Amino acid sequence: MKRAYLLPLLAIALFCSLFSYPGISVAKTLHQPSFLIVGGSRQVIVDIPAGYIKGRPTPLLIDLHGYMGNGISEKGFSRLQVAAASHSIIYAAPDGSVDQNGDKFWNASTTCCNFYKSKVDDAAYIKSLVKEISAKVSIDPKRIYLFGHSNGDFMVYKYACTYPNTIAAIGGIAGAMNFKPAACAVKTAVNVLHIHGTSDEVVNYDGGFMYQNQYPAVKETIGQWLAIDKCSSPPVVGSPFDIVVDLPGAETTPTKYTCPTSTVELWTIANGLHRPVLDWNFGNRVIDWFLAHPRK
What we know:
By secondary structure, this protein is of the alpha/beta class. It contains 7 helices and 14 strands.
C-alpha cells in the first residue's frame, strides 16, 4: 500500500523539478496556438501559431478566396492554413464584400469580379488588416505575403500594383492581371508566383473574356511582371512535380525568371482546371517558396 501511494508523489515531484532545475525551461515550449480578431465591421480571425514569441518578427500570410467563396472555403481549398501553422506563420483568410446577389467578391479589376460596380476599396482594406495585425503582434515587414484563388488572385495583383512596398511576395492560382498594363504603373519589384491550369474553364490559360470584359493570357500576365521587375535573364524550366490529387503523375512544371532584385515564377498545371483538388503538399510548397523570397 505504501508503494502505491509513493508512485504518484514521485511523479509530481519529478514534474515540479522540471520547472526549477537549472538549464531546463519548460515555459519556452508551452506556447499554444491562439487567435485574434481584427477588421472592424469586416471581422477576420487571425491564426497565431504555436511557438509565437512576442517581440520576435514573424511572417504574415493573407489568403484571399475566389468569387462566391469565403475565408472558410479558402482555407479548405488552398491548404495554406495548416502549412502556415507548421511553418510558424501568422495566417488570415478574410472575406470579401457582399454584392447585390449575396455573393462575396473582391473589387480587383474591370474583369473580375465587381459585377455591380461597387466602390469598395479592397486594396485599402487589406492594407488596413496588415497594419492592424502588425500593431497587435510582431510581424516581420520583410516577410508579408499575399495569396489568392481566382477573384482572390486578381485581387492579389491589384494589391501588389497599389501597395508594392508593403509586401515581400505574392502568389495565386487561376487569376490574371488587368488587361491594360497601364493599370499597374508601379516601379517597385515584387516577387511573383503565378499558378495556372492549362484547361482552366473559367479564366482561360490563353486569355479571354468574362462578361464581355477581357483578361490577358498567362504569358501576358507574366510578361507584365517581367517588365515591372526588369527581368532580362532567360527562363529556367525546372523538373515537374505533383500538387494535384486528381491528375496523374507530376503534372506541374515550374518556369523561373530571375530578376535583379526579385523572382517571377510560373507553375503550369498540365490539364489543370479552375479549381483543382490540391494535395496537402501544395500548401507546403507555396509556403517554402514565399519564405525563400523575402523583401529586399
